[in-house]
Structures are given as structure tokens and as C-alpha cells.
């Protein structure tokens, strides 16, 4: 029986790598539903090639445009967040790739969890913002949650495996690798004037714009630190961020006997995606095998939180607890969008995040509404800060 896949964020970078894996292993996988926001032409190509049963867009206008481009295809065209939740929980699928960018991915990812699907989690923002509630739902519905983020997938691979999944046993600490991004060696003065194009030019990975900017500001590592804490039930004190500019080691687990187990490979998301889709088995990918002679050297250094304060802010948000992580994430999403629109400078991103985190009221998260309220408030505050500072 083929595994039936629902692909949320089909038109993005993770979406595209997932489609490559599905295509290469079409004897094992079938794409049954897809969702994206507004990239109608790319979605039309996907629909023509894979003929999913259902395709959902972010707006009615985008849905209508897609339906027009795909006229005659036996596909149900829909729009809106409820339809996204519906395809993610539909009986027609077995696995959901959660690869919508940002907080917008939270509701459909939770819908997938609540309906017991295998969840392939790329959308780190949903776990970072909803944290404990998210993990409680995973436990309640006995869901296989496969981390797709390369570092977390690596950590998962480095842990002892059971039929239920990886377990944390005899672990001393997690070594979370970071490339350091395109500005690893830049001074503050140099970072003042960097452009969105420079920030999006990641040295090792080809990714969407938002996560690329996050990598450049080290917010990606901050989000990943929180992500690791929720996924592997550790605190930031048990996670050491290690800058490793080559992105060959994707993370490591250090055990109490002094052993360190690392997962390595060429930096290509098809590896963690295929692993998540086929676990506990492995399948071939078209990623070239790692040639250590051509890599030649692996380097390591400590992160510099003075130049990259977002990493510190993420750690602080974890210790503040409650809605602090949703607040920081929302501020960052707004600030990154403003940077990409050339409204603010690169260094303003962390400044805005710090102000919003400092000024926001942090509350306990007893139910999902608290997360959505914090997200809304922090977005409004971030926009106000940007508005005042750019006048
Ligand atoms: N790219 C990578 O290598 C990695 C990515 N991740 C995570 O995976 C997620 C996706 O990243 P990436 O693929 O790079 O991002 P992209 O920007 O390339 O793609 C984002 C996808 O999400 C869709 N989308 C955005 N907003 C909405 C919305 N409101 N409703 C529905 N769909 C929406 C986009 O649709 P449209 O095209 O129509 O806008 C697109 O399909 C992020 O959370 C990121 O942190 C994690 C590890 C690695
Ligand atoms: C591919 C992936 O998982 C990204 O999150 C990547 O790790 C970004 O790299 P850095 O944030 O380490 O620069
Ligand atoms: Mn990552």
C-alpha cells in the first residue's frame, strides 16, 4: 500500500524537495492533497504533474486563478485555513508534511496531530509558539512526530531507536550545529548595510527567504534551540550551540560515557525528508554521497551572541516561558518581512525583537487562545515599533 501524503507548503523549498522524494519513490508514495498561499502558477504545475485529489490556496482569488489554470483536471480546488486543516486531517492521507512558513502553519499542523497522522515537522514556528500544548497533543494522540529540520532530524537519528520512535537515554547534552550564516565573519559595521539578497544567500543551503534571513541573524538557531527543548525534553542548558561553517555535521548527541554520535551528509533537505517519510527504513535519494576528502576540514567555533543577540533572546524567551516564545516569534516574523521589504535594516531585526519581548506582557499558556492572542499583540507591537523608528 502506498503512503498517502498531504503536503502543506507545496510551493516552497521544503515542498519542492518533498515532491522530488515522492516522484523518485512513486511506488511508495502518492500525493493526495496540497496547500499553499498565493503561488498559483507553481501550484498549477504541481497539480498537473501529481494530480492530487484536493488543492487549497490561501485566498478565494488564488483558488479561482488555480482552478482556471487547471480547468478540466479531476481536482477539488478550495481556499482558506479551514480547508487546510481539513486536508491535514482527512482520512485520505497517512502522513502530513508540515512545511508552511511561520505561525500560519500552526492550525493545520495541530489538525494533523489531532487526527493521528504521521507528522513530518519542518514548520518549526508552530512548535516554538505552541510548545507544551503542541507536545501534549502529540502524546495524547500517540502520533509519530518526525523532525524534518536538519538538526533535529540529525539528533533523532543519533538517539537510540525503538518501535515507537527515538528515545532519550543516557544523554549528557545535545550539540546543535549552526552554520553561522552569511555574516558569520562580519563586524557590526558591516552588518549595518547588508541587503536582503545578501542575507538570503546562505553559504550551504538553498531555502525560503524567511528562514534564510533567520539563519543570517541566528534567530533560526534560537528557534531551533527552543524546538530541540520541546522535541527532546531538555532545557537550553543541555543544548550547546556549536558553529560549524561547513554544515556537514547536522548535529550531535553527547552521551554520559563520553561518546559523541554525529549525523553527517551533504546539506540537502531531501535526506531528512526521505528519512522522515520512510522511517524506520531508509531509501535512496539523489543526494551525492559525502566525500570527506573533498570536504577535507570540519571547523567548530562558539556563537557570538553580542553580534547575534537573537540567539540570546530565544534562550531568554524559553526561560520566561508561557507566551514569551510566541511573542518573540511573532515579532521576528514581522521584523523579517519589514527587512525583506527594505523598511528596516538587518540589525533592526534583533533590536525590534528585543523591544517587543521586553515590553510584552507574558502570560501562562493554558489554552491555544493565549498563543494566538500573544501572536496578535506582538505583531501589532512590532509594527508600531517599526512605524515609530522609520518615521
Ligand atoms: N527550506 C529549508 O531547507 C528548511 C525549512 N524549514 C522550515 O520549513 C518551513 C518552510 O520553509 P521553506 O520551504 O524554506 O519556505 P518557503 O518560503 O520556500 O515556502 C513556504 C511555503 O509556505 C506557504 N505559505 C506561506 N504562508 C502561508 C499561509 N499563510 N498559508 C498557507 N501557506 C503558506 C508558501 O506558499 P506560497 O508559495 O503560495 O507563498 C510556500 O508553499 C519553515 O517553517 C522553515 O523554517 C526547516 C528546515 C529547513
Ligand atoms: C536546512 C536547515 O535545517 C536549516 O535550518 C539550516 O540548518 C540553516 O542553517 P543555519 O541556521 O545553521 O545557518
Ligand atoms: Mn535547521
Automatic annotation (TrEMBL):
Superkingdom in the source lineage: Bacteria
Cited SUPFAM superfamilies: 1-deoxy-D-xylulose-5-phosphate reductoisomerase, C-terminal domain, Glyceraldehyde-3-phosphate dehydrogenase-like, C-terminal domain, NAD(P)-binding Rossmann-fold domains
Protein's UniProt keywords contain tRNA processing: no
Binding site for Mn(2+): 149, 151, 224
Entry's Gene Ontology BP terms: isopentenyl diphosphate biosynthetic process, methylerythritol 4-phosphate pathway involved in terpenoid biosynthetic process
EC number: 1.1.1.267
Keywords recorded for this protein, A-Z: Isomerase, Isoprene biosynthesis, Magnesium, Manganese, Metal-binding, NADP, Oxidoreductase
Broad enzyme group: oxidoreductase
PANTHER family (alphabetical): 1-DEOXY-D-XYLULOSE 5-PHOSPHATE REDUCTOISOMERASE, 1-DEOXY-D-XYLULOSE 5-PHOSPHATE REDUCTOISOMERASE, CHLOROPLASTIC
HAMAP family noted in UniProt: DXP_reductoisom
Function: Catalyzes the NADPH-dependent rearrangement and reduction of 1-deoxy-D-xylulose-5-phosphate (DXP) to 2-C-methyl-D-erythritol 4-phosphate (MEP).
Protein name per Swiss-Prot or TrEMBL: 1-deoxy-D-xylulose 5-phosphate reductoisomerase
